[in-house]
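We modelled the chain as a single entity of 176 amino acids. Its sequence is:
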Amino acid sequence: TNLDNLQKERLIKISKTTATLEELASLLNIKYPKVIELFDNSNIMGTNSVSAMVTYIDGVPSYKDYRKYKIKTIDGADDYHTMQEVTERRYSRVLKDNLRKPNLIIADGGKTQVKAIKEVLDKLGITDIDLMGLVKDDKHRTRAIVDSSGNEIPIDKKSNLFLLLEAMQNEVHRFA
């Protein structure tokens, strides 16, 4: 029946996604990232700064967990401090209200954004969340990932991992 086929397709899709996330975990030498929170900052000509956070569970968007943040303390386009403000607001709330922590935070940006988030996590005493960033080329397309230590790891642009990360990146851009 159609329902059985849909079920099968869904299972295939999920297994592809979880296998892809296992590949990511192995590349970064981390545990399987069941819950991923991905951040992106956006502004219009340096004003009206907002940050978006999208959440993926087993590689599938969890729309009810999406959040938008109006940036309160930063004027102009300052990606580093914007990323610090938004992640500090997010994870101090996670700690205060005992919310579910992600297994992995992905910054839509390279070493600078990863360093910004790492400082916030260290300051909050959070040691059990892994962290990575998406490194862009000059056409603003992902060309590599960067781990929490700032090491760049190239990824094959034809791989499922690349396609999944690109889909996540497009989703956070759309939402922002």
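As a brief sanity check on the tokenised model: The first strand starts at residue 35 and ends at 44. Residues 134 and 165 are 8 Å apart (CA to CA).
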